[in-house]
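FW: tagging you since you asked about this chain on Friday. Here's the raw sequence from the shared folder, copied in full. Didn't touch anything.
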Amino acid sequence: MKRSSSHFNSSKGITAVELLIAVAILAVLGGAAMPSFLNLLQQYRFNAAARQIATDVRLAQSLAVSRGLRFRLIAFDRTDGTRPNSYRLEGSNTGTAWPAVIDTPATNPLVYNDWINLAAQYSGVAITATDQTIYFDPRGTRVNGAGGDASVVTLSNGTGTMSIQVSSVGRVTAVHSVSY
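HL: got it, structure written out here
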């Protein structure tokens, strides 16, 4: 008896139906994973924005010590008409006279950096509270500013808030609160 093997030798690839089934399975799996991926991406942006603020608070503290001046991180919330969702670092020789909002590093040596817009860098993240100015004296200790004892910068992204808190001795921590 002779076997016919021509049927097996002629099918060396996959059929269009098999390809469509594989693509459909991948599409269903990708669609199921997409919400989790988008949530992960949003959380990554949120954490990155909080890390940036915390790093810049520490930088303001370091600048106060190294330059022997008062330094502050001044932030404006998302509803502020001046610089919404923005912050910068600036110094003061006296502790009472600070650079004007329109000053830049090129026009005033006490302005450390240009305004940093968080919403432009981290989509969906906003500064949400008012009077968010953190002051440091030349010893690196957080001090009360003209607006009172502000020691927190609060961020939000629609799923929760994160507070960058500074203790009286200058320790910086991030506290995350989730909304449901």
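FW: Helices lie at 6-9, 16-67, 118-121.
HL: agreed, and The radius of gyration is 27 Å.
FW: great, closing this out.
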